[in-house]
Amino acid sequence: MLRADKLSVKAGHRMLVDALDWQVRQGELWCVLGRNGSGKTTLLHTLAGVLLPAAGEVRLHALPLAGAEPSALARLRGLM
Description:
Largest sheet: 4 strands, antiparallel
Radius of gyration: 12 Å
Number of strands: 4
Order of helices and strands: EEHEEH
Number of helices: 2
Structural class: alpha+beta
Shape: globular
């Protein structure tokens, strides 16, 4: 399961996501839609652990992504 708790994402001084509580369970499919420049890629990179959140936490299988070893994250995710 992928989970975001009170997740905030910024691009520079611009707040893209503020205090998001969200989770994806096994077997679920989600889609992120928005206009060009709205922050979709920044949000996905934060959820994948590539970028650090402005606030809050992202967990994969109950383990926080912040501070995880990059090699361990690489084995757990696929990102294009």
